[in-house]
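Dear colleague,

Thank you for sharing your sequence with our group. We've completed the structure prediction you requested, and as agreed, I am returning the results in plain text so they can be pasted directly into your records. Please verify that the sequence below matches your submission; if there's any discrepancy, let me know and we will rerun it promptly.
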Amino acid sequence: MTETAVKPKIEVTSFTEAHCAAVAEFFRKVWDPRATEESVRSGRHATIQSNPFQPGQEVPTILFLQNGIVLGYVSSIPVSLWNGGEEQPAFWVKGLMVLPEHRSGPVGYYLLQELLKRTPLALSLTVAPATRRLFQSLGFRELGMLTNHLRLLHPAAVARRLNLEQLGAGRLPNWLLKSMAAAQQIGLASAGAVAGCVVLNGFSVVRSRSTHGLEISFPEVWPDAAELNALWAQMRGSVLCGVVRDSRYLPWRYDISPSGKYSIAAARQRGKLVGLAVVRRPGEESDPRLNGIRVAVISEVLCVHFRPELLCAVLRSADILGAQSNADAILCSTSSDALRSAMRRAGFLRVPENLYFLWRASDAARRLSPELTNWWLTRGDMNADEVF
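Please find the predicted structure tokens below.
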């Protein structure tokens, strides 16, 4: 007698309370070996309760299960998106992950397809070519790459440890990569980096405009809601597309408490809040390709009407926060021409980019700019600053 093959039971479904144990097992395999059913349940409840844009509602999260075992997972981050004239609900696609042995199959496709049924306006910042291809196959529009800019606080330390090849700087000529390696071996890279930064800093001071009456502070609590909302209200007039960065979003997204990972610098003129920078401190464990270089990240920048002198001053205030966290360098990523120009004035160096922006909208939500420079995007969006 021949045995009848039993087809596996496949489910592509929303994450519910009943799935906590299975999700904990998945998390232990791919992210956190300490994950438990209780920690997953607590995290889920906290996400629901803290959601400022849909209070008390589930955050769209999809599971792919085979015989009750989670093979794939994808979640989202709810935000409000400003389209130049009004706000509309949107979601960053976050945490797309498939077990390694199933990555050559359709699991990722079905996960994302199901998520998009619940997210009429979906956004993504991604690096991996395979993920970009998957997103594009489901109708995402790729607008281009955010530019990366680095300010060196300890140039000698960075020059000693920097490995351009490991960081994927493949567009640089081979002779330059070899020359850099040779200079590191004999100590010339450190000396050259220090000298270069002295010149760059002097040049940035000359180019910086006057900021008479500007006061910079480093508060340990967020400014009050009225100040944050007023700052965003003035800034949004210069923004065609971007996440609404107001009193609902900022304190929810960035924890500046003593146990949090972020610090802020606030700029005031005649007592009025006119600029803000959010800096993520270097993590204890960062990307191995950094070879021990401690990188702080400017996760967020807000500024009244993108005034160049204010943007430059806010960026330079991040130096102090970086120094307080023993950072060797500060990274800032952006889609904005205004912010790029300010970073040149503030002594930042442009480095190879790696972060692509994509979006997908239903017919009812298509009033969005197709030009990347019309968007205000930073490393803090979609939690893309976490790798540092």
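Summary note from our side: The first strand starts at residue 10 and ends at 14.

Kind regards,
the structure core
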